[in-house]
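[job 0412] stage=fold_complex status=start
inputs:
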Amino acid sequence: MNEDTNPHISIDCVIFGFDFEKLNVLLLERRLEHEDPSIAFCDQSLVGQHIKLKESLDDAAARILFETTGLTNIYLEQFYAFGAPDRLNKERAKIWLKSIGRDPAVQVITIGYFSLVNTNTVQVSYNPRHASWCDVKKVENLAFDHDQILKKGLEALRLKIKSEPIAFELLPQKFTLSQLQKLYEVVLDINIDKRNFRKKALQSDYIVALSEKQKDVLHKPAQLFMFSREIYKATKKEDFSFNFK
Amino acid sequence: MNEDTNPHISIDCVIFGFDFEKLNVLLLERRLEHEDPSIAFCDQSLVGQHIKLKESLDDAAARILFETTGLTNIYLEQFYAFGAPDRLNKERAKIWLKSIGRDPAVQVITIGYFSLVNTNTVQVSYNPRHASWCDVKKVENLAFDHDQILKKGLEALRLKIKSEPIAFELLPQKFTLSQLQKLYEVVLDINIDKRNFRKKALQSDYIVALSEKQKDVLHKPAQLFMFSREIYKATKKEDFSFNFK
DNA sequence: GCAAAAGTGTTCGGCGTACACCCATGA
DNA sequence: TCATGGGTGTACGCCGAACACTTTTGC
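[job 0412] stage=fold_complex status=done
writing structure:
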């Protein structure tokens, strides 16, 4: 471990991405090579690192996100701190930590952040460790206590997306109402009535219709929209609410 | 600092109490004696301590709450982690930390918890440092970054009290509807219409009328009620909602 | 009898919900 | 012409909001 690293505190980022079909999370491959195949393994983990000395938590999260994806200016939000003394005590975790020169007995507190990106903007190959997008509904057997962190991160996202306009962070700048609806459906794991959804979306001033349509689709091209943060701020009466079902 | 203490991680508890009139927070006196009166000072801080080695965050928070108030089995909830590298760098903070033998240059991450108690149940004198209940609306100039922690804790409480039945943690077991209403009013800093409030409260099955009335009041005694967690769990359709105004 | 808080009903408007068919485009 | 999603309107019920007077008790 680098000497300007704080060995007691780490950040784990739950990086959510939406590909217009499902909600994904960006995972890194954790591969341990060993001559004894009963010891070698390959599984997956969230994106995480220790913070540096004198680095704020928010700065560390942004740095880690940048180092993994090459992206800056990304929505990032802290959601929970995990500090169980045995959180790095699974068998594989111990083997892994030893293999990279760390003492599994040292208690590490990790701070969970979730971030929202549009799946297409990420160069998955940016990271030296193999990174890939996985459907959040199919993820299992993550490293360390990352299952739990992902679960809590998803809960935080669900809570927040119902009361603040963060859905747009997962979409490209121009999007269709069907894409927005699908996003809410996969994040909240519900079905939404199309007419009711559109009525509600169109009532809000800050979802702005553009004089532009979808291209290169094999059906009637849809109207494109943008989210206007300016209009949102100017008109909000602290009552953003997105509760269906 | 004790040798089984983790010097990098602390817990700060925002202990809320309701006295039927206002929302209070429990603060400890921070008094520095010094022969030079320009150095000596006395101000206030939240209740906080470092965690111990191998102690979970939740356990540490419960321990600190117990050591300060003598209470166990209290509602406690983690709400945010604070890690700005300069968070202990105010002038008084540095003087204070040196006076108790700690290095102000060491970065400490603190995890914020809020807890809810009925003001009357706390023996304020339990703690060796002078502890007192202060109206949250009047608190100012707290030690370290505790202003910020209190603010965020209050936001977390406000958010949660609208969607989960935690208000009852701040009340005695038997309470009147006016007391419950007043609680929501002071926590959310709003006025609520009495008839609408009562209508809503009485619709819920889990606020149960007792065959008992208030005593020793100089007006018409009010009906007493209890919160039934059992009924709440059995009947909730994930739709607790307490949104007035 | 007076002060102080308890207790009580109705009306209105808006919003969430359920529900089915025609339209425009590319292949 | 066909497949695919785009796009549209109405009716109903519930809930939140506004609003004022009578009742019970202790002093």
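[job 0412] summary: Chain B is about 25% helix and 30% strand.
[job 0412] exit 0
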